């Protein structure tokens, strides 16, 4: 199943998964009889995993919902900042696993055939959450409760489209680092295309010009090995399972650059529940880069930070999948989603510390070969799900947060879409310096920067203001 990604660059890790508490939510997760197809063509149901907690709920309190994403392990509400809010706001809590991930498999072990994957649509995903919310509100006598949906990364995209497309169910939303731009193909000028690789490169230069220069030399050497047909030599430096062919050049180089991005996404001092890395990966990578015996060895040392668990279990790492299985991303359904409603991508442009790609990124051949699907265009997606700049600007009660370390902010919403206004319902943009990818959605931990702790307080106060109306 992991090989399904061979030709597709997966350089965009969105949400990972918590490694340490897999399957141990308290109260325990349960299963809901969910329709496989909400359009009414079939009455077939599947067991949809969720976790609910009404221990703090009092009549009139809100329902705080975590929308699941592409991870194999569902997030528990008690790991998230909304757990604190529930206590203060008399709220109920609900975590919704994303269909086709974790234990929410509509066709059991046969869920990932092309035939069965066809129910993995954005409409079904949204309807799943709506059905669960409606049912749970009835169950706890909360039919009048206002619902706030929270998501980070891909699920931050989902919380945004849920609020935009289903305002009758979702009163407000937190969308942390949700992709809203960079969907393919690029039809507009380059200004629309804030680039995660450029952001990652800039961060390296800003943090350590010395290390950045070594990385740049390493990528030059790596590119020249592939370009001169000496890919075999790469195995002397990197423990790759498969050697990239010349035609895989761009995918290979982009994926290694992507690992630098993922390490920034997960750059926190402690074990972030959303990732399986610890100990400030950026600082570790910079130190190892400077200490390495050569620029190529420095690249190997950095990729090894993310790929440690894959190396330990398989003895080599699959550059095709960027070792993201080690942090819990389930590739096949995520790949399918990337070919459907998350058709975003970008290239490494000249001038960064990475190797520029030669051909523009295009997922179409991969999506056709793998799933017999032609990805929708950006315009088609926006026309159907209403997440253009204009739609986003006019949708009230959404907080869009982005973190300073996180290169995903490059293709999330743009700060200039949100003028300063005293209107407390206006959509808001929040930049959190010194924070990693979606870190604001998880509970405060020792070592969180004052900016991050304050960002969570601001989010809570904004939500309280919405609810008080
Ligand atoms: C599905 O696969 C898992 C893991 O291989 C296995 O443990 C389980 O028994 C399978 N379930 C069915 C219904 O075949
Ligand atoms: C449900 O809540 C309402 C107030 O919100 C209350 O009047 C009613 O008695 C409650 N019903 C149950 C079954 O708890
Ligand atoms: C690559 O880095 C890892 C981790 O530090 C190390 O074990 C390995 O020897 C390095 N080189 C190669 C060729 O694998
Ligand atoms: C990186 O190196 C600096 C200087 O030697 C050291 O103070 C710091 O603790 C190191 N950080 C990590 C994460 O290894
Ligand atoms: C997380 O990393 C540790 C250490 O590298 C590894 O033992 C563990 O299996 C990883 N967890 C997952 C979910 O891959």
Automatic annotation (TrEMBL):
UniProt keyword annotations, A-Z: Glycoprotein, Hydrolase, Protease, Signal
Gene Ontology biological process terms in this record: proteolysis
Coiled coil location: none
InterPro entries registered for this protein in UniProt: AB_hydrolase_fold, Peptidase_S28, Ser_carbopepase_S28_SKS
Source taxon at top rank: Eukaryota
Annotated GO MF terms: dipeptidyl-peptidase activity; serine-type exopeptidase activity
A Pfam family hit: Peptidase_S28
Cleaved signal peptide residues: 1-19
Stretches that traverse the bilayer: none
Family: Belongs to the peptidase S28 family.
PANTHER family associated with the record: LYSOSOMAL PRO-X CARBOXYPEPTIDASE, PROTEASE S28 PRO-X CARBOXYPEPTIDASE-RELATED
Protein's name in the database: Peptidase S28
Organism: Exidia glandulosa HHB12029
